[in-house]
Design goal:
308 residues; alpha+beta; 5-stranded mixed beta sheet; 16% strand; disordered C terminus
Length: 308
């Protein structure tokens, strides 16, 4: 009888413990579920706050971009207005003088100012086409023969300003090619040289070096600045005033370096101008992605480039 009571007591004790453990497990599970739910709600709340913050920052950034764009547009239109008014004013004055005193020099001035307006409008249209990223006709070519051809084409412009040019081409360049639009690369080189003559001192010497660095073609030009105090960081700005006298008497439109920069960027490259710490010299550098080519392909591409 006593044994039966003991066994029953032990059995009852075991059942109670099992029941307690089950209750404990249920309570813990409920607590964990509640904590998970609270954590989920907290995460959702944080995510919502983060999204609201990002949207707010995005809106503020867009507003800032629009403000800067409006300021740039305002500045551009002011400069454009000045650049258009000047030749128009000169043309109107010369027409008036021509009516009262017909001299050949008046016609020369009219012709020059008409050319200036045509150059400015053409450069503006070029910038529009580049900004719209109109399709480029990309071909594989060796840059060295192209540079030599550009040098020949621009030599008369350098001679006019009494500039000397020392050119060094790394032999490794002939083992590399670039993928580029020939028309726009010619334009970039021509615009660079045409703008350069207003940046450097007349009768000075330019140092040109073409080399390969880490699978990049590097165009390096060094020259003595006409105005050592010029802000080179603003030279790539549209309608940047390099030489006010040149702007009024020549075809320098103020868009040359902006066009150069945009063309190089569309080809995956970079351009920059920096002043040397000592002296009046500045260095213009341009980088373009380069591809190493086989000897056979190198000969073919070089021949095709020369023919073009």
């Amino acid at each position: 009888m006593a044994l039966t009571l003991v066994v029953g007591f032990i059995g009852q004790l075991t059942f109670d413990r099992m029941l307690d453990e089950m209750i404990l497990i249920i309570v813990v599970s409920l607590l964990m579920g509640l904590m998970a739910r609270l954590r989920y709600e907290d995460m959702q709340h944080l995510r919502q706050q983060s999204q609201e913050l990002l949207e707010k920052e995005k809106t503020q950034l867009q507003a800032e971009i629009e403000r800067e764009r409006a300021e740039l547009l305002h500045s551009f239109l002011n400069s454009l207005s000045h650049d258009l008014k000047t030749p128009i004013s000169i043309i109107k004055t010369r027409i008036y003088l021509l009516r009262n005193n017909p001299k050949p020099e008046h016609l020369d001035v009219l012709d020059a100012q008409a050319d200036r307006l045509a150059d400015l409008i053409e450069d503006m249209l070029t910038m529009v086409r580049l900004d719209k990223r109109e399709s480029l006709t990309m071909v594989r070519l060796n840059l060295a023969p192209l540079v030599n051809a550009i040098q020949e084409q621009t030599q008369f412009f350098l001679d006019k300003h009494g500039l000397q040019r020392d050119t060094t081409i790394d032999p490794a360049v002939y083992q590399y090619a670039i993928v580029a639009d020939i028309k726009y690369m010619n334009m970039a080189a021509r615009k660079f040289y045409e703008t350069l003559v207003y940046l450097v001192k007349p009768q000075s010497r330019l140092e040109l070096r073409l080399s390969i660095e880490k699978d990049r073609l590097v165009f390096h030009m060094r020259g003595c600045l006409k105005n050592p105090n010029i802000d080179v960081d603003r030279l790539f700005g549209r309608l940047s005033r390099i030489d006010e006298e040149a702007r009024n008497t020549s075809g320098e439109t103020g868009l040359g370096l902006a066009i150069v920069q945009r063309i190089i960027q569309l080809h995956g490259g970079q351009v920059k101008i920096r002043k040397e710490v000592q002296g009046d010299y500045a260095v213009f550098e341009m980088w373009l992605p380069a591809l190493k080519q086989t000897a056979k392909l190198q000969a073919i591409q070089t021949a095709e480039t020369v023919e073009r």
